[in-house]
Write a structure and sequence with these properties.
single chain; 256 residues; alpha/beta; 2-enoyl-CoA Hydratase, Chain A, domain 1; four-stranded mixed sheet; 10 helices; 50% helix
Length: 256
């Protein structure tokens, strides 16, 4: 299932919209290429000050394509982890303020994209989390490293070890999302927040982003490489084969 990634500039604001078949957005390999192309445009857009990632339909982004994950071994798992991490890090490294406007299910790779953004704004219908352990895997596109850096080890453990999907209220209480708005008011609330984010000085905002990243603690590159290695080892184990197969067959996994 493919996903289009559309980019529209509205003055100093850029809107990146994910559009999937029947409103289900999924991070397939070709969707990641499309996102990379959009990010290349954003990296050159010197007048862009705020970028919002948004979608419509049944999901924000439901995660990676499970059929692709089912085929991974150590070598291909390491490659896809490193490539996905680079993609998410490019979002983090944008000089513009980045906002994930999450209106529905935001899981796995979708959650990792949201964690790569500066702000996560949620509608009441949002459910968000990192359910990879249910597939015999771990978050491999920066989710493990960023969850610890952003929320601390206690919340990261709850998110990753349980694979739990949090409703919007619980996600806000844990700090996973920054705000929650009623579904009917969500789009208007997002637009008001985006207007507020455009008032800061561009150079000051860029400098503040760099300092915050430096102050979060730990070398992100070392953390991401350790995560990629762990993800690759999971891909080379029987658990991930059973986990992904069970998901596709719509049955509980049978762990050894």
């Amino acid at each position: 299932m493919t996903m289009e990634v559309e980019l529209r500039f509205e003055g100093e604001l850029a809107r990146v919209r994910f559009v999937g078949k029947k409103g289900v957005q999924m991070f397939s390999a070709d969707a990641r290429v499309r996102l990379a192309n959009v990010l290349a445009e954003l990296e050159q857009a010197v007048d862009c000050r705020v970028v919002v990632f948004e979608a419509e339909g049944r999901t924000f982004i439901a995660g990676a394509d499970i059929k692709e994950l089912e085929q991974l071994d150590y070598r291909s798992g390491l490659a896809i982890a490193r490539a996905g991490q680079r993609l998410m890090q490019r979002i983090t490294n944008l000089n513009a303020i980045t906002v994930a406007a999450v209106h529905a299910a935001c899981a796995g790779g979708g959650c990792e994209l949201a964690l790569a953004c500066d702000l996560r704004l949620a509608a009441e219908s949002t459910v968000i989390g990192l359910p990879e352990v249910k597939l015999g895997l771990i978050p491999g596109w920066g989710g493990t490293a960023r969850a610890v850096r952003l929320f601390g080890s206690a919340v990261a453990r709850r998110m990753i070890l349980s694979g739990e999907l949090f409703n919007a209220t619980d996600a806000a209480r844990l700090g996973i999302v920054d705000s929650v708005t009623a579904d009917a008011e969500f789009r208007e609330a997002i637009d008001r927040r985006l207007e507020q984010l455009l008032v800061g000085g561009p150079k000051a905002v860029a400098a503040a982003k760099r300092l915050i990243a430096d102050f979060e603690g730990g070398d992100i590159d070392l953390q991401l490489e350790a995560e990629a290695e762990a993800f690759a080892r999971c891909c080379d184990a029987e658990e991930s084969t059973e986990g992904t197969t069970a998901f596709l067959e719509k049955r509980p996994p049978k762990w050894n």
